[in-house]
Amino acid sequence: MDINIIPVQTEIDNLKGEIASLETRAANVHIVGDLSYNEAADVQREAKRRVAALEEREKAITRPIMKGLAEIRALFAAPKDHYTAIQKRVASDMLTYTREQEQIRRAAQLKANEAARIERERLMREAAATAAKAQAKAEELRIEAQAEADAQRRADLERRAAETVAKAEAKAEEKQALADMVVAPVVETTVPVAPGISTREDWKAEVTDLGALITAVAHGGAPMHILAPVPAELNKLARAYRDTQSIPGVTFRCVKTLVTRG
After folding, report:
1. Fewest CB within a 10 Å sphere: which of 32, 67, 175, 248?
2. Which three-class secondary structure state does DSSP give residue 206?
3. Which one, of 260, 212, 223, lies nearest residue 51 by Cα?
4. 162: domain range?
């Protein structure tokens, strides 16, 4: 829709003289008594009257434009709503499927983690059993060596005891290393990758216990700004209480504004 704003621009430009004249009147008003106060009131009323006239002129121009815009938007609204509803319905189904697959993946990952834990513990038990068995065998050889009268035989038994312990420690370390290497495989999601489709995480908060939240803020367990006051609600209390009641941390004050009629 093409709009010729040149006539409107000319109309606005013609107001510059009137605006300058009223600005001069306003600048020359120095309220010192009743007469000057009434002069200021005349300027105030005239300025308001001219603003009202301009608003009416503006509405006369913009009303058909806004009406046409509303009609155009209404034409597109219905099919857009249908397409949006389709998107939401399909998105809901896709997200439900994604959540289900994620639950399956997590369950499989937990199962894999548990299997890896069991295998690690098995290898560690084997390592401990191997070391304990070797220590017992070495102890037998040492006892036998102590009872042996022949020095060569005694030295041979002590050597065998030391070798038994060393071999056992090597096997135990090997099994421990194998245990440390046992890691559960990462279970991947089975959700297919569709062109142009992805999921995005967005964490949101919900206050379930306002009293607990207030206590947390009061004791420094949560930042103060999350309990920002609601000015509109406080203003309602200000209008109701005025200067008869008070709230800790809040000041009620009277703000006067000038009302112009006529």
Report:
1. 248
2. coil
3. 260
4. 6-181
The structure tokens 């058909």 sit at 64
Residue with tokens 């406080």: 234
> Within 10 A of 10 (CB to CB), how many other CB atoms are there?
9
Task: List the structure tokens of 1.
Answer: 């829709």
For the chain, strand residue ranges (E) read none
Task: Provide the token pair at 36.
Answer: 């000057």
- The pTM of this model reads 0.59
pLDDT tens-digit series, residues 25-74: 999 999 999 999 999 999 999 999 999 999 999 999 999 999 999 999 99
Residue burial 47-70, b: 16+ Cβ < 10 Å; e: rest = beeeeeeeeeeeeeeeeeeeeeee
* Residue position matching structure tokens 């930042």: 223
Least Cα distance to 184 among 128, 127, 118 occurs for: 118
Question: Domain for residue 196, yes or no?
Answer: no
Count other Cβ atoms within 10 Å, centred on residue 168. 21
How many domains are there within the chain?
1
Q: Calculate the CA 129 to chain-centre distance.
A: 52
Domain assignment present for residue 254? The answer is no
The 3-state DSSP class for residue 247 equals strand
78: which 2 tokens?
């219905």
